[in-house]
Amino acid sequence: MMDDGAGSIGKPSDTGAEGPTEMRTVTSNITVGALAAIAEDQFQNLVKAVVDVARGVMVVGGEMHADEEAVLLAEGSSQSDLWGINLHPEHFGTPAFIEYDSVINIRPRQGNRSRSVEDTATQGAIVALVERLVTA
Amino acid sequence: MLHRDLAGGRWWTMSLADQMANAGADVGRAMNAKASADAARFEPAFERALELIDLTLADPRRTPPQLKEIARMREVVCDFLVGDNEYDSSAEWIDEYFLQFAVAARSRR
User: Fold this and answer.
1) For residue A16, what are the contacts with CB-CB under 8 A and spacing of at least 6?
2) With an 8 Å Cβ cutoff, are B4 and A103 in contact?
3) If I label B2, which of A29, A41, A42, B11 is the partner at 20 to 30 A Cα–Cα?
4) How far is B6 from chain A (nearest CA, A)?
5) Rounded to whole angstroms, what are the CA distances from A85 to A58, A101, B56?
C-alpha cells in the first residue's frame, strides 16, 4: 500500500515549478520506494524525517527537520516526543537505514545534549515506529 | 541546488545560529561518512554542507566580521574533509564548534 496521505500537509513551493517535495505526515505507511523518490528529489541519498513517538506518526519531505517539527507541533504534538532522523532508503532493512542526527534533538533539559538520540529506549521506540510505518 | 526552498530566500530569514547549526549538521554527516570511508554518503553530505555554508556567505545581512569567520570556517572544513588538514583539525573539534551554534539556536525554542 502506498502512503495513505492521511493528514498530508501540502507545503506550497515558493520557488516555482522546481519547488521542493511537499512535506507529508505519514500516519499509516509509506513505501521505501516512495522514500527513495523523495531522496532522489531532495538530498540524493537521504530523507529527513521527524517522528512523534507518542502519536506514532512521522513527517517526511522537509528540507529541514525544524520544518517537519513545526508541522507536528501545529498538529498538537509535544516537542519532547519529537525526534529528528535521516532515512537512507538504500539501507532499508539494516540498522544503517535510520540515522539519529538532527539539530532539533539538542534538548539539554531532556538530557539530550547532541544531535543524536542518546537514550537507547527512545532509539528503540523510533525503530519500532519506523519499522511499522515504512514498508517494502 | 539541493536546498531549493532554502536557497529561494528562506535561508536568509534564519538566524546565524540556525544557519551554522544546520550547516554544521551536514558537516558532521560528511565527517562521519569520511571516517567510515563511505563515499556514497560523503559526497552528498559534503555538497549539502558547502551549499548551506555558501548560502550563509551570500546572506546580505552578514557583517564583515561574521563573513570573515564563516569564510575561515569554510576553509577549515574543506581542508579537513578534502584537503591535507593543514590546520590540524579534528572531527571532534569541528563538531564541537558547530554544536555551540546548535545549542544556541535550540535554546530559543
Assistant:
1) none
2) no
3) A29
4) 8
5) 10, 6, 24
Record: contact A101-B25, CB cut-off 8 A: yes
Q: Check residues A8 and A66 and name the one with the higher pLDDT.
A: A66
User: What's the length of chain A?
Assistant: 136
Q: Do the beta carbons of residue A85 and residue A98 sit within 8 Å?
A: yes
Is pTM beyond 0.80? Reply is: no
Strands (E), chain B: none
ipTM for the whole complex: 0.70
Q: Which residues of A touch B (CB under 8 A)?
A: 13-15, 18-20, 42-46, 63-64, 66, 79, 86, 88, 90, 99, 101-104, 106-108, 113-115
